[in-house]
Amino acid sequence: MAGQKNAPPVLQARGTGQQASDNPACASVLCCAGVERPPVLRIVVVQAGVTCLLAAVFFIFSGFDATALYSSLLGGSVVTASGFYLMYNLFFRADSRSAQSVVRGFYRGEAGKFALTCVGFSLVFLLVRPLNALALLGTFTVVQAVNWFTPVLLDFRTG
After folding, report:
1. Do residues 140 and 73 touch, judged by C-beta distance below 8 A?
2. DSSP 3-state assignment of 19?
3. What is residue 156's DSSP assignment?
4. 18 DSSP assignment
5. Alpha-helical runs (H) found in the chain
6. Cα Rg, the chain, nearest whole Å
7. CA–centroid distance for 58 within its chain
8. What does pTM read for this prediction?
9. Residue 22 confidence class, pLDDT cut points 50, 70, 90
10. What is the average pLDDT value for the chain, to the nearest integer?
């Protein structure tokens, strides 16, 4: 029984009555600690929807100019792709079994998001001609703001 004295406490997978190690759905320390993964893919879907809506608005108000359409789509795509990368590192990485790896994933995801945003804008400004800067930056700004308001609007709850 000496080996049992130093054993870590057994975590229960939320709502199952099973030990966390027995539950294949419990892939991270967040789940095992009783914190459900938030439905983060909804944020990506909302961002993509807002991007398409703004692209249509810019297209119509620019007099059906295709430059405004693809500029707007590119601005929204930069935000959506970089945001998805961050969410992937936070919630879908298989190595998120300890708090330290979750924090490491957050920093890796945030650094990657920043790098993807910089590279995305660099590529757009270098390779795309002609470009409607108002549509590009306007869509980027509004879709970035979606990150702040979507959790409130969709009423995310964690338990």
Report:
1. no
2. strand
3. -
4. S
5. 2-5, 29-32, 41-61, 66-91, 99-127, 133-153
6. 21
7. 25
8. 0.69
9. very low
10. 77
Dist CA 144 CA 158 (whole Å): 23
The residues pairing with 12 across neighbouring beta strands, listed in sequence order, are: 19
Closest CA to 92 of 105, 82, 80: 105
Q: How many CA atoms lie within 13 A of 84 on its CB side?
A: 13
Q: Name the nearest CA neighbour of 27 among 97, 104, 109.
A: 97
Interatomic CA distance for residues 145 and 133, integer angstroms: 18
Tokens of 143: 């879709």
- Matching residue, tokens 């338990």: 159
For 8, 27, 89, the CA distances from 92, given in Å and listed in that order, are: 25, 9, 6
Other Cβ atoms within 10 Å of 90 Cβ, number = 20
Task: State the average pLDDT over residues 94-118.
Answer: 82
Residue 12: name the closest of 31, 36, 37 by CA.
Answer: 31
For residue 116, the model assigns a pLDDT of: 94
DSSP per residue, 43-83: HHHHHHHHHHHHHHHHHHHTTS-HHHHHHHHHHHHHHHHHH
Name the residue with higher pLDDT: 54 or 42.
54
